[in-house]
Specification:
Strand order of the largest sheet: 1-2-3-4-7-8-9-10
CATH architecture of one domain: Alpha-Beta Barrel
CATH superfamily of one domain: Luciferase-like domain
Strand content: 15-25%
CATH topology of one domain: TIM Barrel
CATH class of one domain: Alpha Beta
Largest sheet: 8 strands, parallel, barrel
Number of helices: 9
Helix content: 25-40%
Order of helices and strands: EHEHEHEHHEEEHEHEHEH
Length: about 280
Amino acid sequence: MKFGVPLGLVHPATWRDLAVAADRLGYESVWLPEHLVFTTDLSTDHYPGGANPGIRPHTPLFDAPAYLCALAAATSRVRLGTAVYLYALRHPLIAARAFATLDHVSGGRAIAGVGAGWYAGEWIAAGADFTTRGRRLDEAIAVTRRLWSEPVVAHDGAFFPFPEVAFEPKPVQDRLPIIAGGESHAALRRAATLCDGWIGMPHTLGSAAAQVALLRELRGDRPGPFEITVHTSGAPEPEEVAAWSDLGVHRLIVRPWTRTREAAEGLAAFAAGHGLAQES
């Protein structure tokens, strides 16, 4: 099992120190969330399922790939992912460039976790049609695959047409992984058919089982690696980790702390309890 660290659940002032600790302690990855902007009109913050997302318009927001570039300079092994980046809210030339840059700066450690998003406000603010977000994301993923692999690319799609361009440098990784987030059938279909994996919201073993089964069904016999990543609500014990693995989950994003000030100690304790390979 691979273990990731959700940096978005602690104060940004601690991100660098926790990323360095995760790197040293043997965690496989660190993850940043992403929003472009929050509007002061809170009528647009309808979270799926009716939960209150607790949006505060003056919350500090950072460009996730740019911030991960800074963390890349402070680390050497840990992978650097977004959970998740609103990829289709930008033109794919911009988004593909951001992640290719991160991959180069980090020496091939980037993971592009992408999602269509749920919050209409930032789409309205950016002048983009929120109702087309899924189709825009599908098209952006397809364009990005070509930009990252073909010498020249021209595209005549519904949302992002452009004339023939060259896109260099390509990512360091032969296939920079794109993993899709989201819990809807459309999101799971996107992950299974267009991406290299799926990243779920916080789940229990019971709540994740149906999603994993549907992913298997949607994926069918498609070739190539496919990784399932799930956030947990806390810090699973070793026997629970084994059950997650039996379910077919490859990576758990864990939170072995309650408050920011407890995060560093919690990461160290979890690493020791689960036999992570720590630097000497």
